[in-house]
Amino acid sequence: MKRVLGTGGTGHLGKHIVECLSEKNYEVSILTSRKTMFPRDNVSIFKGDLSKNTGLAEAAAEADMIIYCASNSRNFEEWILAVPKIY
Fold it and tell me: What would the pLDDT profile of 7-49 be if each residue is shown by its tens digit?
């Protein structure tokens, strides 16, 4: 079974992708900075913040692929300047 990590998995786009993959029996994990409960039992939740470089290494350790949907629409300019420091 393919293991997929979705960053931003609780956002508008990410949550739809995660639900679709979950329905197709992928083993799905999400990395999110929000405190959340995901409505599906087969989705693992990792707490992290890409702008602070926290949580990604642990969440991605077992993933076969990563689908990147994370953003910070509330303070996008500050967030986008921080992203290159992660890589």
Answer: 988 888 888 999 999 999 899 999 988 777 666 677 889 998 8
Return the residue matching tokens 């993933």.
63
Per-residue confidence at 65, pLDDT binned at 50, 70, 90?
very high
Count of structural domains within the chain: 1
Say which CATH number the domain at 52 has.
3.40.50.720
Q: Which domain holds residue 53?
A: 3-85
Query: Please, which contacts does 27-30 make with residues 24 or more away whose CB atoms are closer than 8 Å?
Result: 27/1, 27/2, 27/3, 28/3, 28/4, 29/3, 29/4, 29/5, 29/59, 29/62, 29/63, 30/5, 30/6, 30/59
